Fold these 4 entries.
Entry 1:
Amino acid sequence: MARRAPRHAEAARNDHALLEAAKKVLAVDGAHASVATIAARAGVGIASLYRRYRSKDELFQHLCALALDQWIRVAERGLEHDDPWEGLAHYIEACVEFSGGALGPLAGTIAVTDEMSAKFTRSDELLGRLVARAHEAGALRPDASAMDISLLIEQLGKSPLIDQLDRQGRGDLIDAARSARKRTIAIALDGLRPRHPRLPGTAPSPTLLSERWEHALAESPKQP
Amino acid sequence: MARRAPRHAEAARNDHALLEAAKKVLAVDGAHASVATIAARAGVGIASLYRRYRSKDELFQHLCALALDQWIRVAERGLEHDDPWEGLAHYIEACVEFSGGALGPLAGTIAVTDEMSAKFTRSDELLGRLVARAHEAGALRPDASAMDISLLIEQLGKSPLIDQLDRQGRGDLIDAARSARKRTIAIALDGLRPRHPRLPGTAPSPTLLSERWEHALAESPKQP
DNA sequence: CTTAAACGGATAATTTCACTTCGTTTGAGA
DNA sequence: TCTCAAACGAAGTGAAATTATCCGTTTAAG
C-alpha cells in the first residue's frame, strides 16, 4: 500500500476549505459565483479545485449532497426531541441558520444526481413526520402544511442584508445583522403557533419545490 | 413651441416599458442584470435606453427614486386606514407585493443621490408613525420595532422560488408559487400580533439599513 | 413633402469566466 | 538523508458576456 500520500493531510484540509468557501461564496454571489472566487476564498489555487472536481458543476453537486445530509441530520435530531414543537422549531432554526437557502439559486443550473434525489426524498419524509407530530400535539397551527414550512425556510434562508454587508467587508455590522435576523425568524415562528386566523388559499402542492430542479427549458428561440 | 415631438408618444411608452422591465429583470437576475436583457425585455433597442439615461447607474438611480415614491405612497395610504393594525398590515403586504426587495441587491453598487436620501428619510418617518400608532392601539407586539418591520419586509420581499420559475419560463407554476407566498406572508404577519413570547435580544439599530448604501470599501488591494 | 426626433441593432472595446498547462514544493518511505 | 510521485499555486487561453457607441432607417407634426 506504500507510496500513496506525500501530502495527504494538506489535500484533505484543502478539500474541506473548498467546500466551506463554495458554500459561502454561493450565498454571497448567488448563481454566478466563479471558481476563481471560490478558490481564492479557500486560500488554494484553482488547480486544486479542478484536481478534486472535474468541473464546476461536479463541485456544486457534491455541495448539494452534503447540504442534504445536513438537512436530514437536523430533521432526525428534531424528531428525537420530546416536545414536538421544540423539535420542529429547532429544525427550522437550524435549516435557516446553516444557510441552506444558499443552494436555492443552484436549482435548475445543475443536473440532479441520483444521490441527490434519494436524499431529497428522505429529507421530505422526515419533515413530514416532524410536521405530523406537531399537528397531533396541537402545537402547530392546523392550516400550515409541510410545504408551508419548506417555503418559510426557503424564504428565511437567504439574508440579503448579511450577504451584502459581507460583500462590502463590513464585518463590524454583521453581528448586529445576525441578531436582528434572529428576531425576524422568531416572529415567523410565532406565526406558526395555533390560535391564528386561517391562512389564505389552500396548502401549496409539493411539486412546487421539486419541479424547480428540472433543467431549464429553452428560453429564447433564436432563428437565423 | 412647435416642432418638438415627432414621436413623443412612443418615447413615453418606451420609457415606461424600460422602467417596468428593469424592475423585473433586476428582481430575477439580481445585481448583475445587464442592459441588453433589460432593453430586450422592454422590447426596445439598447440605444433607446441610452438615449434616456446616460448610464446603467443612472437608470438604476431613477428606478430607486420611483420605488421610494411607491413606498411613501403606500405608507400614506396605510396611515389613512382607521384600524391601526389593518393600516400596518396593508403597508407590509403592499411593500412585499411590489417586489420592493428587488432593489436590495443594488445597495452599495450605485451612488446615493440627494433625491434618494430625502425620500428614504421621509419613508422612514412614515413607517415610524405607522408602527407607533399600532403600538399605542396594542395591535402590534410591543417588542417589535420599526426596524424589525423593515427587516421583515426585506426578508419577504424577494421570492427566490418565483424568480427562478420565471427564469425557467415555468409560467404554469407561477400562480401556485404566488399564492403559496401569500400564505408565508400571512404567517409572518400573524407573528407580529401581540401575546407572543418576547423576541430575543434588543431591537436592531436603524443604521443597519442605511449604512449598506454606502459605497463599497476597497476589497482587494492590488499592488504591482 | 420636409425634417428633426426617435428608433433598433450591428459593433467595438473591455472584462469575466471555466478550465489547462507548467514549473515548484512537500513529505513519507527507502 | 535522499528520492520522487503527489499535490501545489499561478499565469495563460480562448470563448462568452457586457457596457456603451455608431449609423442607417422610420415616423409623424407642420
Entry 2:
Amino acid sequence: MSRVTIREVAARAGVSIGTVSAVINGKSTVKDATRSRVKAAIDSLEYRPVEAARRRLQTPREKSIGFIIKELHNPYYADIIVGAQQTAEVHGFRVICMSSEQRFEYEKEAIQTLASKDVEGIIINPALGDDPDVSHLEDLRERNIPFVLLEGMRGDFPASIVDVDNEAAAHGLTRYLVEIGHRRIAHFAGPRVSMHAGERLDGIRRALAESGLVLRAEDLVHAGAALEDGYRAGIERFAGRGPERPTAVTCFNDLIAVGLLRALHELGLRVPEDVSVTGFDDINVARYLTVPLTTMRMPRNEMGRQSAELLIRRMRQPITVPPERITLETDLVVRASTRRLA
Amino acid sequence: MSRVTIREVAARAGVSIGTVSAVINGKSTVKDATRSRVKAAIDSLEYRPVEAARRRLQTPREKSIGFIIKELHNPYYADIIVGAQQTAEVHGFRVICMSSEQRFEYEKEAIQTLASKDVEGIIINPALGDDPDVSHLEDLRERNIPFVLLEGMRGDFPASIVDVDNEAAAHGLTRYLVEIGHRRIAHFAGPRVSMHAGERLDGIRRALAESGLVLRAEDLVHAGAALEDGYRAGIERFAGRGPERPTAVTCFNDLIAVGLLRALHELGLRVPEDVSVTGFDDINVARYLTVPLTTMRMPRNEMGRQSAELLIRRMRQPITVPPERITLETDLVVRASTRRLA
DNA sequence: GTGAAAGCGCTAACAA
DNA sequence: TTGTTAGCGCTTTCAC
C-alpha cells in the first residue's frame, strides 16, 4: 500500500491537483466550498504531502547541518552541540543530531540517514572501531558532503578537524600532579578505540617518563567512558588494597572521575587526603560535587562554535581546499580533589 | 548561484544524464573510460546529488522519527531518547533529535525542520510558553503527521501522551517526608512554564494540606531546571538563616538538587543532618553523589520506549483513533539525602 | 554502453 | 475560481 498522493485527493474531491495544491498552500484563490471539499478529502484519506517534493525540488530548502555524537549520556557532547547550534543559528542553519552510542555501525547509518535528509554538512565525533575503517567518511567525500571531525581518526585520515591537543593536555595535567609531589599515579583510561583516550594516555606516559616515573601495569585501568565504568573500576582497583596504592588517579573523563569518587567514598578512602583524583572535560557538574573536581577543561562550547563555523566555511569553498585543523586550548582547573603531598 | 545539477555534469562529461545517473549509482554497465570522464566532471563541478530527488520521490525512503527535547543539558532526556532509539530500531526507524532549549520559537522551528525532512512522526517534549499557543501542534495535526507528547499541554490539548502522574508522584514523595517527621518543607520549583513543575507543586501542596501543613511563601523558591539554578537558589535561600529554616527541601529535579547540595555544603549545612533534600528523575549521577540522593524515579527508558511504540502504532492507524494516554509508574528511591527526624 | 523519454509528487505559471 | 501543463533533479525503462 503506497502512500496517498495529491492525485488521489484530487480525484476524491473532484477537483484538479492544482486546486489541491492551492488548498495545501493556503492560497486565497480557492472558493470556500471547494476548499472544504478538498480538506474533507485530505482528512478522509489522511493525505500527507511529501515534503521533499513540495520543497519543490526547485527552491532552496531549509538549511541544516547534522551532528553525530558518541553518547547521549555524556554532558560533554551537550555543550558542544549547544555551541554548534549557536553558531549555526547565526548563519541560518538548524542542527539535527544523532548518536552512534559508540557503535560503529550506528555511525555509518547515521551518516546515511543525515545524507538522505540533504543536510548541507555534518559534524562528526567519530566512534572508531579497532580497524581503521573510514569508508563512510570516504563516502561522504565522494558525495561532496562537507564534514568536520571532533576527534582524530586512526591512520591520519585527512579531514578537517577541531580538537585540542590531548596529548599535551594530559601531559600538563600529569606534570601538575608530579609537581605537587605525586610519584605513583594511576590512570583510569577511556575506551580502547577512542583516539582521545589514546592521546591522553600518551601524554601521561610522557610526563611520567620525564620525571623518571612509570605507569605500572596495575595502575593502568581500562575503565571506559561512563559513570558506571568509573565506579566499577574504582571498586575493583581499590578494594582490599593496603597503603600500597597510588596517591593520585587521572581519569579519562569527568564521568569516570565521579564514579571513582563514589567508589573511594564507599571504600572509606578520602579525597584528596588519601587519594587525589583528576578528571577531564570540566563538565558542569564537576564544580558542584561535594569534592569539586580538579580537571582539564575542554573548550566545549568553543569546539561546537568553531566546528560549525569551519563546516559552514567549507561548504562555501571548493572542496579542494586542503583539510584544516583547528586546535583549541585546554585549561587546568584546580579544585579540591587534588592535594600537594607533604 | 544555484546548485550544480546532473545536467551540468552530463554536459561537462559529454554524456547523457542517464549515464551520469548510472555512474552515481555504481551501475556496472558503464564503460570504464566513460566512468572516469563522468567522475572527473563530478569532481571538478563538486556535484552533489539532491538526495530528496534521488530517493526517487518514488520509492519508500529511510524511515525516521524526530525527537524534540527541551534541554540538551539534562541527562533526563538522554535516557528517554536512548529508550526511543531502542524501540525505533526494532521497527526500522532512525531517531533524529533537535532541542528547543526551552524556547518556544525554537520548538516551532524544530517541528518545521523535522517535517521538512519528511520524518514519519515526532516525539515532543513540549516547551510551553505562558500562553497556550498550540498552533504548531495543530499544524502537525492538519498535516497528518503523527506525534506523541511527553508532557501535557495547557488547556487539555487533546494529543497522545506518555507521561507519569506527576501530581501523585510529588504527593507520594512529600508524604514520605511528612511521615519521617518533617513539618517544614520547602520546595525548589521548576520553570513556571513547565507543566511538570506545576503538577509537582500541586502534589506537594496536597500532601502538605492533608497533614495540616502549608507551603509558606518563603519556602516556595522558583529555582529553574538547571544545576546552576539549584546552586544559586540554594545560596540565596539558605545564606544567613538561623535555625529558622525548613528541615527538608523537595527539588523540582535532580539537577536542582545537586546544585542545592553544593550550596548547602558551602554554607556549612549538612545533608541530611541539618537539611533533608530530595530530587526528582533519578538521573544516573544521583546515586553516585557523596550523599546519594533520595529521589522520585522517572521511568525514562520506558518513557522513551513507550512513546516510540505508541508513535509507530499511531502511524499505522487511522488518525481518527482518539488520542491515547499512557501513564507510567514512578518509584520513590530512598537514599542518604533524607533522614527521619527525632 | 549509451541516450531518449517517461515519470516520481508536487508547485507555479498560465489559460480558460 | 479552476484546470492544464511544464518543470524541479533524479532514476529507470527501453530502444538504439
Entry 3:
Amino acid sequence: MADIDSGSAQPAPRKRADARRNERALLDAAAAAFVTSGVDVPVRDIAVRAGVGVGTIYRHFPSRADLIVAVYRHQIEACAEAGPALLADSDTPYAALARWIDLFVDFLVTKHGLAAALQSDDAAFQTLHAYFLDRLVPVCDQLLDAAVAAGEIRPDLDAYGLLRGVGNLCIGAGNDPRYDARRLVDLLVAGLGVR
Amino acid sequence: MADIDSGSAQPAPRKRADARRNERALLDAAAAAFVTSGVDVPVRDIAVRAGVGVGTIYRHFPSRADLIVAVYRHQIEACAEAGPALLADSDTPYAALARWIDLFVDFLVTKHGLAAALQSDDAAFQTLHAYFLDRLVPVCDQLLDAAVAAGEIRPDLDAYGLLRGVGNLCIGAGNDPRYDARRLVDLLVAGLGVR
DNA sequence: CAACATACGGAACGGCGTTCCGGTTGCCAA
DNA sequence: TTGGCAACCGGAACGCCGTTCCGTATGTTG
C-alpha cells in the first residue's frame, strides 16, 4: 500500500519487464547519487549510474522533481503518518508539534540540497513543492490547531508558513558546520509559544 | 566617502574614459535588471541593457557576485552603519537588535533572489557571501553582545547563525503572497528572548 | 515465429556562465 | 596634429546543464 498506485483492479496493463527493471535501477541510482552529490546532481550522472540513457529517465519521470518525489516518497509518507501518532503519544500538543518538526528537520538536513530545491520557484520543481505541501500541510495544521486549542501557542502562524520557514532554515545545513539549522528551528518554535 | 575606494593618493593610475563610462552603465543596467528579473538575471541581459558585450562585464566584475556586491554596496554599508546608531537610540539593546534585523529583512526581501544567492554554495558566490559576512557579522555581534549583557536574550546564538537564519527565512519572500518572511523572522527573534 | 507496441540510448537543442582573442579606441608624447 | 601603443571592447566559442526527439532494439502476444 505504499506503492505509487494500489487498490482497484490494475488499470495499467502491466509494464514491460525491462521498463520495470530500469525504473527500479533509476530509483536506486538516484538515491545513491543524491546522497553523494545532492539532489541537484546532473541528470547524466544518474543515467550513468543506472546504466541507462538520459531519455529513459525522462520517460519514467517527466521532470527531475518527479524523480525526487519518487525517491523520498516513503520517508515523506512516514513523516506525515508520524504526526497523528505523536499527537496521541505526547504530553501536550505543543510537545507533539515540536517533536514532529524535529522529524521534518531530520529528514531535510540529511538530504543535501533538498531544502533548497523545495524553495526553488523553477517551474520544474512545482511537482515537488506540491507533493510536500499536499502531504505535510494538513498534518502540520492538525498539530498547530491542537496546540492553539490547548492555549499553548499563539495562533499567529498557519501551517504553510511554518513549514516553509522550517524548510528555509534547513537550507545549507550540512554544508557548513558553523550553521546549526536545528537550533534556529528550535528558536522559531520557541517563539511560537505563548509568553 | 561612500565610494568604492577613496582617500590616499590614487594608486590606480586612472582608468580610460570609456572604461569608466561602461562601468557606470553596467552598474545602472545591473541594478535595473535585478529589480526586473532578480539577481539571477542572465548576464547577457545585463550586457544588452548596458549596450556592451559580455566580455566587458567580466573585465569589470570578475564574477557575477562582484557585480552584485558593487550594486548593493551602498545599501549594505548603510545597514551596517545603522547598527551602532540603533544601539545608541533605542531603549534597550534588544530593541535595537530587533530594529536592525528589520532593516536587514527590508533590504533582503526587496531584492529578488538575493537571499537565495547568499546561501548558494556555488564557488562563484563566495565573494558575495564573504562581503556580507565581513560587513554585517561584526555589527550583529555587537548588538547581540549588548543584548546578552543586558540579560535580555539567551546567549544561545552567534551572529553568524542568526544572520544566516534570517537570510534563509527571507528566501522566496516576495514570490509568494502566502509566505510572510517578516513574521517568521519576528518569531525567531522572539524565540531569542529570555523567558 | 512473426509482427507490433513499447521502451531504449544518445545525439541534438537551447540556455546558461565564463573565457578568449582579433579588432578598436582613448591617451600621451613627440 | 599625429603616431603608436597599451588598454579596452564585442561577441564568438567553450563546456555544462536540463530536456526533447527519433531511429533502433526488444519484450510480448497471438
Entry 4:
Amino acid sequence: MTDERPEVSRGPLDELFGALADPTRRFILQRLIHQGPATATHLAGECPTSRDAPLTRQAIVKHLQILVDAGLARPVRVGREVRYTATPAPLATVVSWLTETGPRWDRRMEKFRGRLDTIDDQGTSTA
Amino acid sequence: MTDERPEVSRGPLDELFGALADPTRRFILQRLIHQGPATATHLAGECPTSRDAPLTRQAIVKHLQILVDAGLARPVRVGREVRYTATPAPLATVVSWLTETGPRWDRRMEKFRGRLDTIDDQGTSTA
DNA sequence: ATTATATGCAACTGACAGGTTGCAGTTCGT
DNA sequence: ACGAACTGCAACCTGTCAGTTGCATATAAT
C-alpha cells in the first residue's frame, strides 16, 4: 500500500505505440505481414532510408528487437539464419484502446470490439 | 522526382503514434475527452506520476504541445488562462493504418472503414 | 579444411525526449 | 493601484534512442 495513486499505465501500450511510432518499424512490420518472413540482413537491403545510404543490418536488428518486445514479431532460427515473422495479434490491444478512448467512438465502434478478439497469432505461419 | 525509393513515411503517423506512446499523454487525452477541457496548471495536479511528486506545469505544457502538434488537442485562450480541448478526430488515421496493416484484418475491418470518416472534425484544421 | 555467409555482442556517437527551475509578462480581483 | 494567479520563454540536466563500426562466432558449401 505504499502506492495509492492511479499509477500511470506502464502497460504494453507504451511498447506497442512506441514500436509503431517509428516509420522504419512500421515499414518492417508491413513488409513482414505482406511479403512474409525475412532475415535482418535481407531487410537491411529493403528498408527505405530517406538518405542515400541503406540502413545497417544492426540498425534493423535493433528495430526488430523492439517489435519482438512489443509482441509484434517473432524470431525463428533456421540453420544459420534467423527469420523474423510478423505476429500482428497485439494490434488488437491498440485498436481496443483507441475505440475505448473516444466518447462517440464508443457508440460507433462498440459492436466491433468483440470481433477483434478473434484475431489470432496468424500473420504468417512459422512453418 | 529525384527520389524513386519508397521514401520512409514521414507523415502524421509518426506524430500520432509518438504522441500516444507516452502514458502521461494518453492520460491527458482521455482526461480531456471524458472530463472536458482543462488548463495545464489544473492538469498538473491530476496527472499520475508513478513517483510521489506531481508533474510540473511545464512538463504538462510540453505534453500538451505534442498533442496539439499531432492534432489531438487544441488550445483556447479564455482570459488569462488557456483551456485545452481534445480533438480526437485524427485517431481515425491511426485506426485506418491499423486496419490496412493486417491481411485478414482488411477483410474483417473493411466494412468499418467508411464509417470512421463520419467522425466529426473538431479541430484538425490547423490552417 | 577453407572460405563465404549470416548472426551476436559491445562500445561509441549524436540527437532528442522528458522533466526541472527560474524569471518575465498578463490578466483578474479587490 | 496592487497583489495574486496564470501563462510564456529559455536554460539546463539526464536518460534513452537511432544508428554506426569493429570484431567474434556459428553454419553452409565446395
